[in-house]
Design goal:
Number of helices: 15
Organism: Candidatus Woesebacteria bacterium GW2011_GWE1_41_24
Number of domains: 4
GO molecular function: ATP binding; glutamate-tRNA ligase activity; tRNA binding
Keywords: Aminoacyl-tRNA synthetase, ATP-binding, Ligase, Nucleotide-binding, Protein biosynthesis
Largest sheet: 2 strands, parallel
Protein name: Glutamate-tRNA ligase
Family: Belongs to the class-I aminoacyl-tRNA synthetase family. Glutamate--tRNA ligase type 1 subfamily.
Oligomer: single chain
Strand content: under 5%
CATH architecture of the largest domain: Orthogonal Bundle
Radius of gyration: 29 Å
CATH topology of the largest domain: Arc Repressor Mutant, subunit A
Length: 300
C-alpha cells in the first residue's frame, strides 16, 4: 500500500480499560510495544482499521511513533482464507507434517516479498542482508504447498546424512531399532527422493515391515519375471550390488525381457509399491535371506 491517512474525527471511541480495570488490547499492545522498544510494526492489512486507534494512543501517552506497515494476507489456492481442512496451516502443524524450520522460514519470507535478483534460497542471515522494504508485494500471495515441498526438499538435501538420520530417529521408533550403518545407508538412498521428513515411512518402511503385496500392481509378465528373479538371486553366493546387477541384467538379456517391466515387478514383490529407492540397492540392504523369503511369498 501507499501512505494511508485517516480523518481522526471519524475514528470511533475505543474502550481502553474494562470495567474491572484491566486494559483492552488497544491499550495493552501499545504499552507493550513501547516498553519493548519496538521500532517497526508490520501487521496484516486486516488490522488496518485498528491502526489509527493505536497511533492516537501513542500520541496521547506521549510515545514516539513507530514505523507502521500492513502486509498482504496469504490465501489458499482458491483465493479464500487458509483453512485446516486443506492441510496444516499453523507452524506447529507444518513442523509435525515433516517440514523443516529453515524451509518454512524461506517459504514465508517469499510470500509477499520479492528480491530484486529472483533468488529463492535464503537463510535468516541472507534475508537480513538482502531485505529492502520496497520488495513487499501489493497482491495477496497464494499458499502453494507444492512450492513449500520444493523448498523443504532443498533444505533436506542440505543436511548431512548424519543430520538427516538423526531427524529420522526422532520421528520413527522402528527406524531407531535398525543398526547404525544400515540407517545411514537407508538415509542416503531416500534423501534425494523425499519432500518431507515424514516421507520416511512411505519410502523406506519396507525395510522394517514386510509389505502386503497387491498382485494387481504387477505387470502382465510377472509370472515369468519373478520365478527367474528368484532363481538368479538364490544362486548368488557373494551378496553385493555389483554381482546382483550383473546377474539380473544377464538374465534379462538372455530372456529378452523389458528391463523396466522386469525391475518394476521385482520392486513391487520386494517393497509392495512402485515408488521406492533403487530396488537393487534396497535388496542388498535387506539381505539375501529376506529378499528370497519375500519373493517366495509372491512368486507363482
Amino acid at each position: 500500500r501507499e501512505t494511508v491517512e485517516w480523518n481522526t474525527d471519524v475514528v470511533f471511541d475505543a474502550t481502553l480499560l474494562k470495567s474491572d480495570g484491566y486494559p483492552t488490547y488497544h491499550l495493552a499492545v501499545v504499552v507493550d510495544d513501547h516498553d519493548m522498544k519496538i521500532s517497526h510494526i508490520l501487521r496484516g492489512h486486516d488490522w488496518l482499521p485498528s491502526t489509527p486507534i493505536h497511533l492516537l494512543v501513542y500520541k496521547y501517552l506521549g510515545y514516539d511513533f513507530p514505523e507502521v506497515g500492513h502486509l498482504t494476507d496469504i490465501l489458499d489456492p482458491e483465493g479464500g482464507k487458509l483453512s485446516k481442512r486443506k492441510g496444516s496451516t499453523s507452524v506447529r502443524g507444518l513442523l509435525n507434517d515433516g517440514y523443516l524450520p529453515e524451509a518454512l522460514f524461506n517459504f514465508v519470507i517469499l510470500c509477499g516479498w520479492a528480491p530484486k535478483n529472483n533468488r529463492e534460497l535464503y537463510s535468516l542471515e541472507d534475508f537480513v542482508e538482502a531485505f529492502e522494504a520496497d520488495g513487499f508485494q501489493k497482491s495477496n500471495p497464494v499458499f502453494n504447498r507444492e512450492k513449500l515441498d520444493w523448498f523443504n526438499g532443498e533444505y533436506i538435501r542440505k543436511l548431512s546424512d548424519e543430520e538427516l538420520c538423526a531427524k529420522f530417529e526422532i520421528l520413527n521408533s522402528k527406524f531407531t531399532e535398525v543398526d547404525k550403518n544400515t540407517k545411514l545407508q537407508i538415509t542416503k538412498l531416500i534423501k534425494d527422493r523425499i519432500k518431507k521428513i515424514t516421507d520416511l515411512e512411505t519410502f523406506a518402511g519396507f525395510f522394517w515391515k514386510t509389505p502386503e503385496v497387491d498382485i494387481n500392481l504387477f505387470g502382465e509378465n510377472y509370472k515369468k519375471h519373478l520365478p527367474d528373479a528368484l532363481q538368479v538371486i538364490e544362486g548368488i553366493n557373494d551378496w553385493n550390488l555389483e554381482n546382483l546387477n550383473e546377474k539380473l541384467m544377464s538374465n534379462i538379456k538372455e530372456k529378452e525381457y523389458k528391463t523396466g517391466d522386469f525391475f518394476m515387478d521385482l520392486r513391487i514383490a520386494i517393497t509392495g509399491t512402485k515408488f521406492t529407492p533403487p530396488v537393487n540397492d534396497s535388496m542388498i540392504l535387506l539381505g539375501k535371506e529376506e529378499v528370497v523369503n519375500r519373493l517366495k511369498k509372491v512368486t507363482p
